[in-house]
Write a structure and sequence with these properties.
The protein is an all-alpha fold and 88 residues long. It is built from four helices and no strands. It is elongated.
Length: 88
């Protein structure tokens, strides 16, 4: 039982770490707004997305809610995509 709990907590911590890395990349994109920042955010988001897909069946968090809230309110990447590419 303890091993399962530790595994669950490790997966949740990894999710939190990857979420923070994606958020840091997003903040850099908002502040600087260049192509390098855009690509860094995409890489961080891909890491997060792929990790979440690998642990989705473990129910470490509500993946649907996270995706809805992040894509709709936190990381409005469609608007940012247009802003980045309209300047290049």
């Amino acid at each position: 039982m303890a091993e399962r709990l530790v595994d669950f907590l490790e997966k949740g911590l990894t999710n939190a770490e990857l979420t923070l890395a994606a958020q840091e990349a997003w903040v850099a994109l908002q502040q600087i707004g260049g192509m390098a920042e855009w690509l860094a955010w995409l890489a961080a988001y891909d890491d997060l997305y792929n990790y979440r897909a690998s642990v989705e069946a473990d129910f470490i968090c509500n993946m649907g809610f996270l995706n809805w809230s992040e894509m709709g309110f936190v990381w409005d990447y469609n608007r940012k995509f247009v802003a980045v590419f309209s300047n290049h």
